[in-house]
Amino acid sequence: MEDEYLKGVWNSPDQEMEQFIVHQDPSFEMAQLKKAKAKLRSLLFPKIVGIVLGLGWMSVMFMLIRLSILYSHVSTGKYFFVGSLGMILVITGVAVFLYTKDIFILQQIDHSGSVAVTQRKVAALHCSILNSVRISWLQLPFYTTWYLNEGMLAHGSFLLWIFQFLATVSATWLAIWLFRNINSANINNKWVRNFMRGNGFSSVIQAREFLNETDTFSREEVSI
């Protein structure tokens, strides 16, 4: 009877053969876990680079703010300069914190031997990457206001005012729109995936697919 079953599997389509092999191979879960970890491990170096660059940019912002506070006279331009750079500094700091959090999660995933625990950590990493990108875009409008001063406000031409208004409003609208739309609910939208491609998101998606395969095959095995 068993020989007849094996012959039937051998003569079945490739997909059924693959599933049969998977069900009979107790190391499949571990293999999928290793593949997922390998994908996620590739994110470690870019995250470290991002933290270093972020800290460097924060240092520049802090130095400029400090110099402005100490050595420039009180003026409208100073308020715009310090306020804009201060917001950029704070938002960049939040992004750096999330990058640091990502590294901590990656380290936990690397030392986890459980698929269930790894799935939860990958889900947390998924949300953290989304949040770091959407929050980072909130600093965009402040790059259009840091240079404003009394001379521009009092004596700027009508064309300059129109250009400044359009630049600030457009940057504000884009920042808010991206912040609201880059989220887990829209992750299946093609534009979101393409937008997130350069942030290591593809590796996270592939890792989740590897881990989800273990659940899929486990459910199929139970149903057999």
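The record above closes out task 2.4. Task 2.5 opens with a second protein, given below.
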Amino acid sequence: MRNRVADSYLASHDGFSLLELMISATLVVMILGGMLPLLTGGQNMYEAQSADMSIRQGARVALDKITREMRLAGYSIDNVAQVFTIASGTSVQFAADIDDGAPEAPCDASFETAANGGAERLTYTVTGTNLWRSVDCWNGTTWTSEISSQLLIADLKTGQTVFRYFDAAGNQMTGTLSSDNRDAIRSVAIQLDLEDTSYSHLGDQEHSTYQIASQVEVHNLQ
């Protein structure tokens, strides 16, 4: 009697059968297979949001720099004939003493003299999806390139008008701006339309887009 009870107890605790293990493994695979798309989608969304944040932060920094320097257009440039020398929808060039005579880079002490005037010439140019910055230094006679093609933004939407120009009355100045037209510039509108093509987003939006803008009053020409 005791042997029968013991045999029955041991038989009921022998573990899982092969069939039970196969069924359990199949269920685990099905569950993991259903979770994998969710985990992958979550990872893709995280990477896309991180890329968006990086683009937005970079755009803000670039726009702040352009705005700050352009606001000084015409400042302390007695030895320079004209402030704006290029003014188009995708390129702007202007002169200003952006460092207020300091002998640090990009224009060192040899440029920052009373004879030379210490002026810098800033150029912002769009080519394709890139926005570039260049800086020239005035030596009293000619401009010397000190910073050439510094990349500020690499995610612009192609074909956009970045710079728009306005006169003292607030009228937009269109077409090719002549030398006289450029002398009449009193404010510049800057609009950056950005597009992140690195990651496709969920839903019906193919790529992330972002727009940031600024209106710059050229105080030294008022």
